[in-house]
Structure formats: structure tokens, C-alpha cells
Design a protein that fits this description.
Radius of gyration: 16 Å
Shape: globular
Number of helices: 3
């Protein structure tokens, strides 16, 4: 029972929103890497929480091929409980923001390949991502 308190405390102080982090592993498991802006199209309740759908308006493709499609479908789920995203990222904070998106194809839409990764600050990470992809550091 003593171990439960430190674990609960760690979850309580852990970040409760998507985190930006760049690893070569994240780049490697991404099917598509784009610079773009996330827009929310609709959401609906389901057994597992809010199912949200949107699209990323693409400015530039860094990895992958989207042909002439400049809007990439993006899907995510979040818990019904307000502010609780220890099990799922809450992408509402990224809606309307432009950044670098690391995406994995899943069904008809793309999702973030990691639980809390997938969105990077463009000015901070663009040169680093382009460098990794150019050198083939995947």
C-alpha cells in the first residue's frame, strides 16, 4: 500500500496536456510529417469519451505524400472528465495553432503516433526536424 501514494502523487503532478518532444524514434514511426494548423470539425460523445474530428490545413509536407490534398483528416478522443488527460491527450489546446505535426495513418484519418507527442513548435523544431529527415536519422 505504501507504493500507491508515490504513484498517485506522480500522476497528480504529471503534465495533463499534450507535450512537445522530438525524438528520432517519433520521426521514424510517423507516416506523415507536416507543418500545418489544426481545425476542429465536430465532436460526439461515445462510450470511451468525446470523439473529436478535425483536419490539419497543410502548409508544407516534410515526410510522406498527401498528393494534392492540403487538408489532412485528424482524429482524437478525450475523456469525459474535465481536464483529465492522463490516458489521452487533449488536443483542444492545439486547435488553431500552427506547428509541426507527426502523424500516423489509422483508418480514414491520422493520429499522433505517441500518447502525448505529435505536435511541435515550428520555430523551435523546424530546422532540427528537417535536418534529421535530410540526414536520414530515423
Amino acid at each position: 500500500m505504501r507504493w500507491a501514494l508515490p504513484i498517485l502523487l506522480a500522476f497528480a503532478v504529471a503534465p495533463a496536456c499534450p507535450q512537445e518532444e522530438l525524438t528520432t524514434a517519433s520521426l521514424a514511426k510517423s507516416d506523415l510529417i507536416v507543418v500545418g494548423t489544426l481545425y476542429q470539425d465536430f465532436k460526439f460523445p461515445w462510450f470511451d469519451g468525446w470523439n473529436e474530428r478535425g483536419h490539419i490545413q497543410v502548409e508544407r509536407t516534410l515526410k510522406g505524400d498527401i498528393w494534392n490534398n492540403r487538408a489532412v483528416p485528424f482524429a482524437w478522443e478525450r475523456d469525459f472528465r474535465q481536464g483529465w488527460c492522463l490516458t489521452r491527450p487533449d488536443w483542444r489546446g492545439a486547435v488553431g495553432k500552427t506547428g509541426i505535426w507527426l502523424l500516423k495513418k489509422q483508418g480514414d484519418a491520422y493520429r499522433a503516433p505517441d500518447l502525448f507527442g505529435g505536435f511541435l513548435d515550428r520555430p523551435k523544431y523546424l530546422d532540427q526536424v528537417v535536418g534529421f529527415l535530410t540526414r536520414g536519422d530515423k
